[in-house]
Design brief:
With about 550 residues, this protein is α/β, with parallel strands linked by helices. Helices cover about 30% and strands about 15% of the residues. β13 and β14 form a beta hairpin. It is globular, with a radius of gyration of 24 Å. It binds 3-acetylpyridine adenine dinucleotide (N01).
């Protein structure tokens, strides 16, 4: 209960200017910004600590696929000058330590309520305030609610018959236990071959006596080439941070600084193109996809990169039958999030690793002993579900959100999420989303997008306060136009060709809509800034 509040009847137990849901990277920075503006803020976090995705995803090998010096906050120069990242790609424990450091450094914990799941948020049209109820029945009243719930935070267990009968241990990569798990001497099955699986499989294979990988769709992965960062590496960034951060925000499509490609893949002779891909493969990392400017746009161009990676897989994996199964053939490269690995494909050369092709032999059921696929039972001591998330909308959908006229957000989004700028949805006044559907979000360096949204929202609340306004809502017209624009931009790319979580295709029954905005973070930032400076065109303020 807030200081000085008393409880009367059906009155909410506490009043805040802003309730924030989630204490991941978005929630932490938002709390810092809003508190700096003198607002009363309460953050509800269902975990027992800060860090969001980095709090939950503790599976072996978990690390960020965006380089540490860029996957970090820019809002505090002292912080970016002082924090020492140890490796090119920081491992999960280090990113979590960084989130904890930020929470302590900016004294954030006193306004965060841990182990508290928000169950509902209901808009009271008379009071023009949100009533927020947590799972333990506590209620609070807030003028604004911000959903900083994360895009990949609702771990998804597949609906496979028999899971409850299984006698061994089960794990989900997105909900990994806090204590270290030792698979030494065990027969382990991993279901799924997305980024989480691709990072954890090589390490699990080193411990397990036998590892069975159940693959439904092969994925493209490029080597991370992770390495320790030297003091010189760090200095190079630190000396140039203002410019590096500016370029990331304003000039890059995905918020990661890299030399922008000038040519299309077919504008070069075969040999030059092969050298380009080879150089990027050797340097490692996500910038492989920045080799040419049309890889996400033209299938023939995309095929050149896909063929290059397929050839690499064939080179690395000794058994040609296994190599063939590992070569993706059902989606353009990059149309599903490309993976970044350390020794993923080479792991299949180990004697203790077996690949099961679920396209030929689908999982029939999970038995007491293990997994049955294609008439064969694989006895297992443990099963790791690396089966992904109900992405972008899943965590929002779990909260009972009711806006004007009692309409729920889930009902409104039944055919797919609808927002203006990914920031607000019409009919839900004073409810903001951070990195929501309709914004660059998961297609970008998340911290760049998080900081942009937090700054925009914080500035908006400050503007409203200055002007004596207390309510903001997206207009239907602006939202309709934005949704049409998001779809139009996506349809000009190869992305919609994949059955990806970007499309909601990994969740049975979820509408197939390309959720993020693919126009690029620079373009998007400019649009958001223009909206704000035009007096919030597309929003109704009162
Ligand atoms: O999840 P995914 P993820 N039977 O959805 C399979 C980020 N991330 O946790 O493709 C059998 O990608 C599914 O098969 P299919 C990153 O943005 C980042 O790995 O649907 N298989 C797929 O192979 C990433 O994209 C980092 O046919 C089933 C897998 O499970 C996102 O998180 C690290 C199945 C799920 O892959 C999600 O990655 C980790 C079933 N019933 C994650 N259901 C880094 O920064 C699902 N699958 C490095």
């Amino acid at each position: 209960m807030a200081m000085g509040e008393t409880r009367t009847g059906n009155e909410p137990q506490a009043r805040y200017d802003v309730v924030v849901v989630g204490a991941g990277f978005a929630g932490l920075y938002l709390l810092h910004r809003l508190r700096g503006q003198g607002l009363s803020v309460r953050v509800f976090e269902q975990g027992s600590g800060v860090g969001g995705t980095w709090y939950w995803n503790r599976y072996p090998g978990a690390r960020c696929d965006v380089e540490s010096m860029q996957y970090s906050y820019s809002f505090s120069d002292k912080l970016q000058q002082q924090w020492d990242w140890s490796e090119r790609y920081a491992p999960q424990p280090e990113i979590l330590a960084y989130a904890n450091h930020v929470a302590d450094r900016f004294d954030l914990r006193r306004d965060i309520q841990f182990d508290t799941r928000v169950e509902s948020a209901v808009f009271d049209e008379t009071a023009r305030r949100w009533r927020v109820t947590t799972a333990d029945g506590e209620t609070s009243s807030a003028q604004f609610v911000v959903l900083a719930t994360g895009c990949l935070s609702n771990a998804r267990m597949p609906n496979i018959a028999g899971i409850a009968d299984y006698a061994g241990k089960t794990y989900h990569t997105g909900h990994w236990p806090h204590e270290p798990i030792d698979f030494t001497g065990q027969r382990v099955g991993v279901i799924g071959t997305g980024s989480s699986a691709i990072q954890s499989i090589p390490l699990i294979a080193e411990q397990a006596s036998q590892l069975v990988v159940f693959q439904r769709t092969a994925n493209f992965s490029v080597p991370a080439r992770n390495a320790p960062l030297t003091p010189e590496d760090r200095k190079q960034f630190r000396d140039n941070y203002p410019e590096i951060r500016r370029i990331a925000r304003e000039e890059m499509r995905n918020g990661i600084v890299t030399a922008p490609p000038e040519k299309g893949a077919l504008d070069e002779p075969d040999e030059a193109r092969r050298r380009n891909y080879e150089g990027r493969w050797t340097r490692g990392g996500l910038t492989f996809m920045a080799a040419y400017n049309n890889l996400a746009l033209e299938k023939a161009a995309n095929d050149t990169a896909a063929d290059f990676v397929r050839a690499k897989i064939a080179e690395i994996v000794k058994d040609p039958v296994v190599a063939k199964l590992l070569q993706p053939d059902s989606h353009p490269i990059g149309s599903k999030r490309i993976c970044v690995d350390t020794d993923y494909y080479a792991t299949f050369n180990r004697d203790n690793v077996e690949l099961v092709d679920l396209r030929a032999d689908p999982i029939e059921q999970i038995t007491r002993l293990g997994v049955r696929a294609g008439d064969k039972e694989y006895p297992l001591d443990a099963i790791v579900f690396a089966t992904g998330f109900d992405a972008m909308t899943g965590s929002v959908a779990k909260i009972g959100i009711k806006g004007r006229n009692g309409r729920t957000l889930n009902a409104k989004w039944a055919e797919g999420p609808r927002t203006f700028l990914g920031l607000m949805s019409e009919g839900f006044p004073n409810l903001f989303l951070i990195t929501g559907p309709g914004s660059p979000s998961v297609l970008s360096n998340m911290i760049v997008s998080i900081e942009q949204h937090v700054d925009w929202i914080a500035d908006c609340l400050a503007d409203m306060r200055r002007q004596g306004l207390d309510c903001i809502e997206a207009t239907k017209e602006a939202e309709d136009n934005w949704v049409a624009h998001v779809n139009e931009v996506a349809s000009g790319t190869l992305y919609p060709q994949a059955n990806s979580w970007y499309m909601g295709a990994n969740v049975p029954g979820k509408p197939r809509v390309f959720m993020p905005y693919i126009g690029g973070v620079g373009v998007y930032r400019q649009i958001c800034n223009d909206v704000a400076t035009s007096g919030y065109q597309g929003f109704a303020l009162s």
